[in-house]
Amino acid sequence: xxxxxxxxxxxxxxxxxxxTARQAVRRYEAAGAVVHRLSTPxxxxxxxxxxxxxxxxxxxxxxxxGWEPLLERCRKAGIPVASEPPPGEPGHVxxxxxxxxxxxxxxxxxxxxxxxxxxxxxxxxxPYAELAQLTTADMVDVGKRPGHHxxxxxxxxxxxxxxxxAGKNVVxxxxxxxxxxGRGGEEVSACVRAGIPVRVISGVTSAISVPAAAGIxxxxxxxxHMFTVVSGHxxxxxxxxxxxAGLGGTIVVLMGIGTLPQLAAGLRRAxxxxxxxxxxxERGYRPGQRTTIAELGTIETAAAGCTNPAVLVIGxxxxxxxxxxxxxxxxxxxxLLAASLLEA
Length: 344
Description:
Layout: E1 11-15, H1 22-30, E2 34-38, E3 56-60, H2 67-76, E4 81-84, E5 92-97, H3 108-115, E6 119-122, E7 138-141, E8 144-145, E9 148-149, H4 153-165, E10 169-174, H5 184-193, E11 198-201, H6 206-213, E12 227-231, H7 238-247, E13 250-254, H8 260-269, E14 277-282, E15 290-295, H9 299-302, E16 310-314, H10 317-343
Parallel strand pairs: 1-2, 1-3, 3-4, 5-10, 5-11, 6-7, 6-10, 12-13
Antiparallel strand pairs: 8-9, 13-16, 14-15, 14-16
Helix pairs in contact: 4-5, 7-8
């Protein structure tokens, strides 16, 4: 249920077993309500004294018979009754792709998984700053940045498994897509080995969305009919440089600032034209987004001040973005000129 009423200081009675009602209790408490719980239809298990006339009754479907007479009495007394869905099956893990960091690029599947979570283990590239709008789950920062892992990968997997074994609905929120350099396959394997039900919700990968944020299409008719996505965490081998240079199309490198000098030099040695356009898009969809454009032969100098998170784009599609931007700016200048002439 999406809470749109102002419930600050209002008495809300949540009915349903303690385990089934736990997420509803958190949501109403987060909305500022004074929450009272009734775990059995006969009233034998109440969480302290119940209000004589609650502002709202939130009825969670826990599968127990006997709730309807109580709820019907509330309706006849003019007390609103809100039906709350039960939480998902307890003790499972959902790997969620959070996209490039923009809240509006989360999928509906991601939003639903976050709403139903008991605990969320999130990365720094996920849209974590706005999560309070989407979930009342416990938030655990397990983020990594180059050269520093706040929590080791094996420990992240253990945290997920232990929480699920304790009966919690676990969300592992990752930037981009879990299966695109996100170690999602390893985390799925850890859950499978532990006998934990696990599913994956794909996310909008930064390999496509961050270039798009800078106006760069990774494919364009008669310019590039394919693109290759490369991890920039470790330098490529000479053989890989040669392979990339011979593929054609667009090359997209994720988190590649640290290895940019080796990549550019390796591609030049492999025969790629030093005049090939290249873009570095920093902090896509985030405050301070910046795009640096240069040629393959000069990119090391041009991008000397760039930092991760960044996406590198190598290919003629960068010229397409430049042409579109120049056209847009020229059109804007013409519109300003026309407006000033009309005013004159």
